[in-house]
Amino acid sequence: MSRRLVFAIPFILASALSWPLQAIANDAFPGKTVRVVVPYPAGGTVDNVVRIYTERLSKMWGTQVIVENKPGADGNIGVSEALRGAPDGYTLLVHGPAIVANPALYPSLSWNPTRNFRGLSVLAWVPQIAVAAADLPVKSMKDLENLARKDPGKLFYAVPGAGSGNNLSTQLFLQSVGVEMTAVQYKGQPEAVMDLLANRVNFMFVSPSIVLQHISAGKLRALAIAGPGRLSQLPDTPTMSESGYPAAVRPFWFSMFGLAGTPEPVLQKINADLVRIAASSEVQAALRSGGYQPPAAMSIAQMDALVRGDTEAWGNVIRKAGIKAE
Question: pTM of whole model > 0.90?
């Protein structure tokens, strides 16, 4: 027997033994109830998207997939709850942009999304609309940039929460083009939109569901879509990239996560099943009707890269802008 073959035998045996173990782990999951922690209130936007998937996972797996709502502290309470679970696939987490922004907003956090979690799949892309008050003399993002450059600090933009997706989108745009506007703080999007309608502020990034009716009525002007594609409800409104600002948009998402250390076959199974659900025409229609954009299939490796890239990018935006958690 050759020396090369003698050394190769242990590796061959180890690989051969691992195959059935991986198959068993994959086939056995799930053998009991799966809990999905959602750090947002029941009946909210994230919760509604989650249940589109969990209802179908329950049928697919033949077991209960229960949603546990743990809102509070910008999503940090829900993360802490999920981290109490075992890394076996039976405790999952669904989170939004806050999971990649919070490490920079809360420097004392004991967790980090790239260290403590594994991304399983994007459940929905969450676009925002760049909107201007109807009286503002702009029809495009380029017009807005030129006006802001002409009168630095004279335009007012709404901030419905420090570190919110709206705030981050605006800061990314301002930093990428090097112009100044003045922030006006609000407790939430509805209050900010009311002042935008009244021309007390000039501009903001906002969730589609809150402003589509005002855009249709001509009371607000849609300038661009901050997302991976155009909205079906606004087919003539270009994306930020199409408007000439590819560096000024980083699309937001709602994603499902497993705990770091979960066996890879289990992660791969959940990923494959979520991808299959997302490909359903019924699910895609439900997401679009809610103002979301359906995700394309992404592997675990691609999810790892997405989470890592967003954590770094949004952290840089937050630190440069000096944004602090409220």
Answer: no
